[in-house]
Every structure is written in C-alpha cells, then in structure tokens.
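Q: What residues go here?
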C-alpha cells in the first residue's frame, strides 16, 4: 500500500497511529511483564534517555567524519523505541492515543500558519 502524502487524511492517519501503536505497545507490555522484572517509570525514563544518548553519540561521531555502520543507528534507534514503549507502559500512558492527539494539534497549528503564509 502506498500513501499519497498530498491527499493524506489526517483523521485516518491519526486513527491508524492510535490503533497500531497502542496494539504494539500492548505486545511490549505483555512481553515485558512475562519475562522481565517490573521497573518504575523513572527507571525507564532514565533508560530512554541513556539510549537516546547512545544514538546521539553515534550521530555526533558520524557528523565529525567517523564512518559509523548503519547497523549502529538501527540498533540504537531500536533501543530508543523499546525504552519508550517500556516507559509508556510503566507510566500507564497510551502512547498511540497521545501521538494521535498530538498529530491533530500539530496539523491544526500547521493549517493556521499556512493560512498566514508561514511555515510550521
Ligand atoms: Mg543502546
């Protein structure tokens, strides 16, 4: 399936994000609960920021001219995503719903700015 981004319906987009991200998050929750010790939201927040730091460090090295294998960016991006899933579950946040709401807010602001001839 190919999305036409010029004619994207923001409501369909937000609805899909809400449904699928929430479903993916539920799988992470079940996996985490069945195989790993329970941890606090604060723990996962620190882990998320640690993983984001590892990703940023790889990007910094790349920016300074060192050759960084793409697999490093993939691995660290995956770590960030997993830590975010675990954080959202520990904090009892429905991330898909939160992202869907944020997308609608961003789109509203984008349209208001576009009507004034300004970029977001
Ligand atoms: Mg890592």
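A:
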């Amino acid at each position: 399936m190919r999305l036409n981004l010029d004619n994207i319906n923001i409501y369909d987009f937000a609805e899909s994000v809400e449904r699928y991200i929430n479903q993916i998050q539920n799988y992470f929750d079940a996996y985490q609960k069945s195989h790993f010790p329970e941890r606090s939201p604060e723990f996962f927040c620190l882990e998320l920021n640690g993983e984001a730091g590892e990703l940023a460090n790889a990007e910094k090295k790349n920016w300074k001219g060192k050759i960084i294998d793409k697999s490093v960016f993939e691995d660290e991006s995956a770590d960030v995503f997993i830590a975010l899933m675990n954080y959202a579950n520990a904090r009892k946040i429905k991330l898909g719903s939160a992202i869907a709401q944020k997308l609608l807010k961003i789109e509203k602001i984008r349209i208001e700015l576009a009507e004034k001839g300004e970029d977001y």
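A: Context that may help when evaluating the design: The radius of gyration is 18 Å. The chain has one domain: 10-115.
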